[in-house]
Amino acid sequence: MRVSNIKKASAQPNKVTELDLSGQDLKRLPDAVRKLTKLRRLELAGNRLKDLPEWLPELKTLRELDYSGNGLKEIPEIISQLTGLEALKLGEDPFKELPESLLSLKKLKRLELVGVQLKDLPAWLSKASIQDLVLVFCPKMAGLPKVIKELKQLKRLELADLEFDSLPDWLGQLGLEELALGRLNIGSLPASLFKSDLRVLNLTDLDDLGIPSGLTNMKGLTQLTICPGDTQEGEDFVPAELGKLTNLEELHLINIQFSSLPAWLGKLKKLRRLTAFGEGLTEPPKVLGSLPKLEFVDLGFAPELAGQEAAVQALVPNAELVMPT
Fold first, then answer.
1. Rounded-to-integer distance, Cα 100 and Cα 103, Å
2. Which of 117, 223, 296, 299 lies in disulfide reach of 200, CB 3.0 to 4.6 Å?
3. What is the model's pTM?
């Protein structure tokens, strides 16, 4: 059970698994949290919690902690005692280093750093078992930290709102399964990335990049999201060569206008989920009828299709539809 009210949590302490106390101007963590014996996720963002109570490690089921935006000048040592943590979010605070004591978090798989003042990531991070790393708005980082090359278990990397103007060629040699890039001032992607075994790629608000030609060589992709910051005309912006990505199971084309969905979509026979989120469509896209595995279709931002749900559903009788109202 997920709650955002400490009184409600206190009434059913054995049922609460997620507690969101974000933005409640807390100066200390309520003692009632100590009784939440099944708590798995704790969100404390946007408070004034300069420290955490000594009893917090008693919450043996705690797996996820968001401790961002609390005005921290340094990370409290007590966090290193939360040995069951699998996901940790820090940031929007003036601390300038990550303590090596965080290595005590042997089960930590996801580390999210948002709005941090770090110039680099510490060398000791290479000893961690991080599988999912998120770096968002780190204005003092001049480039992608090299220690990332040493994260042997890294499978997912998310980079957004960073001051980089390029990405290193070794990015494609990390063995990543998933890469998300957003709001970066880059004009190209490393050539090594197009030869990688990446399965999931998200390109959001990368208007200087567009859709790189090498993308069509990434035959292992099963999920692709393209969302330009400025609305683009689909016929000019999206190359027909994307039809070569025949292993795609999910394709999300957002903020892209199509007068009709392109014929090359019909080559993506494994496609299960499709989002074509942009104005321009006026008639039910007939190409949907050639995609037998579709389970979900989102055409919700095509106002001219309002009232034509039955006609679209006839093309994909087994798919869940999101249509304009």
1. 6
2. 223
3. 0.96
